[in-house]
Specification:
The structure is a single chain. By secondary structure, the chain is α+β, with helices and mostly antiparallel strands. It has a single domain, classed as 3-Layer(aba) Sandwich (Aminopeptidase). It has a 5-stranded mixed sheet. Strand 2 and strand 3 form a beta hairpin. Helix 1 packs across helix 2. The radius of gyration is 15 Å and the shape is globular. The N and C termini lie far apart (about 50 Å).
């Protein structure tokens, strides 16, 4: 398995994987977003490939706003990570995360953060298993005016 930073040519593969992570979106919509992200200096996407097949991706970026539990700015932030079911528990997500962390470190970040939904036990296990520590739990509210 190889991990490499995604380029313009990888946008379609990124979007095809990302729609599995974020099913409320359309592949074309995500492709447009990834086309912008792979060319932004403050964002990066990484692809995991087994031969010619894309089997996972991670998206990260710098956040300059306050990030819960951090003391510095900017902070590297894991926006999403996805690995195809057949390649889970192989270290693929850990390798993708390591690429994101190395990218953030190269940009001068001393901290790296992420989040997950309160009911996403699998994501919580992953984050704790790769060295993240829980900073806070929050429930957000809204109402129509």
């Amino acid at each position: 398995m190889t991990i490499r930073k995604a380029t313009d040519e990888d946008v379609g593969m990124l979007a095809a994987l990302a729609v599995k992570l974020w099913p409320g979106h359309e592949t074309a919509e995500l492709a447009g977003e990834f086309a912008e992200l792979v060319n932004r200096g403050e964002a990066a996407c990484f692809l995991a490939r087994e031969g010619e097949r894309a089997v996972g991706f991670a998206q990260c970026q710098l956040r300059h706003d306050y990030v819960e539990g951090t003391k510095t700015s900017p902070v590297g932030y894991l926006e999403g990570v996805y690995v195809e079911a057949a390649f889970r528990r192989t270290g693929c997500a850990r390798q993708l995360l390591a690429a994101c962390e190395a990218w953030a470190r190269e940009l001068g970040c001393g901290e790296f953060a992420s989040d997950c939904e309160l009911d996403n036990a699998e994501s919580l296990r992953f984050h704790l298993g790769v060295g993240f520590e829980e900073a806070n739990r929050v429930i957000c509210f809204r109402k129509d005016l």
